[in-house]
């Protein structure tokens, strides 16, 4: 378990730009040392803001996009192309404008895909895809992602792991179907905390006053069942990237 590190930026625009620059550097370094890189994307306004900032960054061409694997931390279980799907929003923000290898873009199944409306079967298929990509050096059922991005919800949820729901209590499976989510749509697919913790680095993004209480709770010793963000950490690094508004209620001791 890595100790959380905090970086606070003046506003959400600076946060997105700085996070994009940081991510470019991390990807380039991983590709230089291992030949390829893997990143887990997140949706929401902060995740999409980071991708849009990356698309606009002059240094984006330093990345060898053909040697980058992209995964998702969660997905809204909706039909392919639905504007609310995280992958649809990611394509609009960045993915359609860079030369990715389509075989290395690992979108979660849609509700009109081969598994129909069976979210559990779709989750099992994604878990199998992760396991297939995990090498012997990963020592687990998922790859050792270089960076796993997470947005912070006002209720402290990350990915689609909501407080007290069964998914946040999962300790064995790497991907689960989520039912009865408190925000629409109610059915989702999500990585579990064990899968999140396989990442080398976990970056949590939070901007806005509506995230301030959640950030304070998650960083003040709350339990992961009540505050899922508290249980999201990387093997070597856990980085909280906040704007001043989201950091406004943090204890002075942090």
Description:
With 254 residues, the protein is α/β, with parallel strands linked by helices. It is 28% helix and 18% strand. It has helices spanning 12-34, 44-56, 86-93, 119-133, 193-196, 212-218, and strands at residues 4-9, 37-41, 68-72, 74-76, 147-151, 175-178, 188-191, 201-206, 237-243. The protein has a six-stranded parallel beta sheet. Strands 4-7-6 form a three-stranded antiparallel beta sheet. The longest helix is centred in the first third of the chain and has 23 residues, at 12-34.
Would you list the SSEs in sequence order as H and E? EHEHEEHHEEEHEHE
Structural class: alpha/beta
The fraction of residues assigned to DSSP E strands is: 15-25%
Largest sheet: 6 strands, parallel
Poorly predicted runs are none
Q: Specify the overall morphology.
A: globular
Average residue pLDDT: 96
CA-atom Rg in angstroms: 17 Å
Strand order of the largest sheet: 1-9-8-5-2-3
Helix content: 25-40%
Helix tally?
6
Strand segment count: 9
- Quaternary: single chain
Distance separating the two termini: 17 Å
């Amino acid at each position: 378990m890595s100790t959380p590190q905090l970086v606070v930026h003046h506003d959400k625009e600076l946060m997105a730009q700085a996070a994009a620059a940081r991510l470019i550097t991390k990807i380039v370094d991983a590709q230089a040392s291992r030949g390829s890189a893997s990143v887990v994307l997140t949706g929401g306004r902060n995740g999409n803001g980071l991708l849009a900032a990356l698309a606009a960054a002059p240094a984006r061409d330093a990345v060898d996009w053909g040697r980058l694997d992209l995964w998702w931390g969660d997905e809204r279980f909706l039909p392919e192309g639905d504007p609310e799907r995280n992958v649809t929003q990611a394509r609009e923000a960045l993915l359609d404008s860079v030369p990715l290898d389509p075989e290395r873009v690992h979108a979660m199944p849609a509700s009109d895909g081969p598994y129909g409306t069976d979210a559990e079967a779709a989750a099992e298929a994604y878990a199998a895809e992760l396991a297939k990509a995990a090498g012997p050096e990963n020592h687990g059922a998922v790859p050792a992602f270089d960076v796993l991005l997470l947005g912070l919800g006002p209720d402290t949820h990350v990915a689609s792991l909501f407080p007290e729901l069964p998914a946040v209590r999962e300790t064995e499976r790497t991907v689960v179907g989520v039912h009865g989510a408190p925000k629409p749509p109610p059915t989702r697919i999500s990585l579990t905390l064990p899968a999140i913790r396989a990442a080398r680095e976990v970056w949590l993004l939070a901007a806005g006053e509506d995230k301030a209480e959640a950030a304070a709770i998650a960083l003040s010793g709350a339990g992961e069942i009540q505050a899922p963000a508290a249980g999201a950490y990387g093997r070597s690094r856990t980085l909280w990237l906040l704007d001043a508004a989201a950091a406004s209620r943090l204890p002075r001791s942090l």
